[in-house]
Amino acid sequence: MTEKRRVFTAELRERAARIVPETGKPIPEVAQDLEINETTLANRVSRARQAGNGRGEKEELARLRAPGV
């Protein structure tokens, strides 16, 4: 019998893409930890980097380092 395809929420996809730059861990390690496909995670990380969420890198780092984030 085939395995049922897992569905990830938008929030989970976004958080998974942020783990790589925030922790500095390599994509294969994060993908294995989260039990998701390495290529899928790499694509999400790449899209997140390109989009930049409308922020510059310095602003994003300040936001991430702010207390309560």
Describe the structure in your own words.
- The chain has 69 residues and is mainly α.
- Helices cover 65% and strands 0% of the residues.
- It has four helices and no strands.
- The protein has helices spanning 10-23, 27-34, 38-51, 57-65.
- α1 (10-23) crosses α3.
- The relative contact order is 0.11.
Helix content: 55-70%
Rg over CA atoms: 14 Å
Write down how many β-strands occur, each being a DSSP E stretch of 2 or more residues: 0
Based on secondary structure, the structural category is mainly alpha
Main attributes of the structure:
single chain, mainly alpha, about 70 residues, 4 helices
Layout of strands and helices, then pairs:
Layout: H1 10-23, H2 27-34, H3 38-51, H4 57-65
Structure at a glance:
With 69 residues, this protein is mostly helical.
